[in-house]
Amino acid sequence: MATTEYDVRGADFLAEECAGLADSLRRVTVEVSGFGSGGGSGVIWHPAGLIITNAHVAPRTRGVVELWDGQTFDALVIRRSFERDLAAVWIEAPNLTAAPVRDSTTVRVGELAFAVGAPLGMPGTLTAGIIHSVGRVHPRARREWVQADVTLLPGNSGGPLADARGYVVGINSMIAGPLALAVPSSDVLRFLSGLIVEPVTPPKNEAA
Amino acid sequence: MLLPDLSNALADAVERAGASTVSVYGRDRLPSSGVHWRPGVVITADHALERDEEISIAHPDRAGRIPAALAGRDPTTDLAVLRVDPLSLPVAEGREIDSVKVGHLVLAVGRPGEAGMSASLGVMSAVGPAWTTWRGGKVDRFLRADLDLYDGFSGGPLVDTQGRVIGINTSGLSRRFDLTIPRSTVNRVADQLLASGRISRGYLGVGMQPVRISDQLVSALNLAGNGGVIVISVEPGQPAERAGILMGDVLVELDGARVSDPEDVIAQLSSDRIGAKITARVIRAGRPADVQLVVGERPAHWE
Questions:
Q1: H-helix or E-strand containing B32?
Q2: How far apart are CA A75 and CA A72, in angstroms?
Q3: Based on the domain organization, do A37 and A52 belong to the same domain?
Q4: Is A85 a catalytic residue?
């Protein structure tokens, strides 16, 4: 009887790698709540306590951030742009593990893309797809997006869109039919420029 | 690290396919996609080409819009062929369909506008035998991928993980799902359209409408199903008239195949049937009658 041998190990390794990637992404993804919205997700951007999320997830100044291990922290918005839909949130938790970030201008169409968030209250949910396009949706559009054919649900907002190595290339912000629209990481860097996050001192309105 | 390798391979495939994928400006809204198929020949989806003139194509490697002339359309396979001045763009590389299996990773690539190239990933979900579209087009393989064809993707390529073209994607052949016209069918249609500007089609010269046959007749004539096609007009000098088909005849069988809808009749009239003698079973005045017909060729003005 003729038999065909298939090498399934490749697929097994791939599945293992996916699981590993999901795990490391979950550790840099937080749940954001209490900012006067339905809540959402966020990305640990800097080990000194800087979280990036969407402005529409954190429209008010004070709220709560929950880490992947269940620790919760009072959180404060220290910079926000509704125009770009980004918010920088500070928590008093030094020595966090920050997400590795990749310059979104180097992202190519067709690359694998992964999203982690808390859609429908299920934290750590992973969805996968590919980069659909990078840049403006229309030639005359003002904003740029990283678009991926990754399933997003409300609650994914503010969470990471990452590449095949787990590097964050964007912040998931909008659902356009079957597509995920993420704020490019290059925009996040521009949004954060000039912001200095001190490991110990929380920012205050008046310096003493 | 397999995941980054796979990711890079997919991006490479998109880049390779994108080199020969163009935007096609042939309608008022968002452009559709097309493939540089042979030197100076671009294939696109017929349904997305809403005009016959003032068509142009674009590719980021070439400045501006490049005028294109319509060589011909084949609505039956939803393909259209454009002629352009020799492009300094590569011609799409093909993939042998026989080696494509259900489960293979595939990508749809599109260029719906100047914003750049877009892609969609999925697996081959059906690789079936030859089939006939509802418009009577013969397609060599039934190809369907479980990926989203976004707006403007019709006319673009379905490619393998190396960027080689399996076929042309279209959302215009089925309301229920997107399909891919295999490369071999595209080649055949392109050959015919480039040679004569049209696809020849079989022709009977009748106007038709579906009708329901009474249960009494269905059981008396031992028919499968109660659908039939009533002849509502007979064109003078055409095969049906010459064979003696009359207005009011109800077609129930063509060449042994049950017909219960005008589409069933059209499906029997592909170009390879021109000149063939076929038997039509009709119900005339409540009785079955067999009529011998010679399939004609659809006149050019009919398109």
A1: strand B32-38
A2: 9
A3: yes
A4: yes
Position B271 scores a pLDDT of 78
Token pair 């707006």: residue? B151
Contact A110 B14 (CB under 8 A): yes
Examine residue A11 and state whether it is found in any structural domain, yes or no.
no
More confident residue, B198 or A159: A159
> What would the two tokens of residue B132 be?
């006939």
Summarize the confidence of residues A171-195 as an average pLDDT: 92
Tokens in use for B170? 């279209």
By CB atoms closer than 10 A (0-12, 13-18, 19+), residue B216 is exposed
Residue A118 lies in a domain: yes
Tens digits of residue pLDDT in B10-24:
999 999 999 999 999
Q: Is A56 known to be catalytic?
A: yes
pLDDT recorded at residue B58:
94
CB contact under 8 A, A130 and B6: no
For residue A59, what are the CA distances in angstroms to A32, A74, B12, B164? 11, 15, 40, 48
User: Do A76 and A126 belong to one domain?
Assistant: no
Of chain B, the percentage scoring pLDDT greater than 90 comes to 73
Name every chain B residue with its beta carbon within 8 A of the beta carbon of A149: 120-121, 147-148
Q: Looking at the domain assignment, is residue A65 inside a domain?
A: yes
State which of A134-138, B77-81, B136-140 shows the largest mean pLDDT.
B77-81
Chain B contact present for A151, CB below 8 A: no
Neighboring chain A residues of B31 at a CB cutoff of 8 Å = none
CATH code, A158: 2.40.10.10
pLDDT for A116: 94
Contact B15 A179 (CB under 8 A): no
Domains of chain B by range and CATH? 2-195 (2.40.10.120), 202-302 (2.30.42.10)
Which chain A residues are within 8 Å of B18, Cβ to Cβ?
A: 109
A23 is catalytic: no
- Judged against a pLDDT cut of 60, whether residue A205 lies above it is answered with no
* Partner A, chain B 114-143, Cβ-Cβ below 8 Å: 114-121
Can you give the residue range of the structural domain that contains A90? 25-98
Please tell me which residue in A85, A104, A163, A187 is annotated as part of the active site. A85
What does the block give as tokens for A42? 């966020």
pTM of the complete model: 0.79
Interface A:B, Cβ pairs < 8 A: 84
Residue A200 pLDDT greater than 50, yes or no: no
> In terms of domains, do A86 and A156 share one?
no
Extract the tokens encoding B104.
Answer: 């293979």
Structure tokens that stand for A157 in this block: 């907002």
Interface check for B1 against chain A (CB to CB < 8 A): the answer is yes
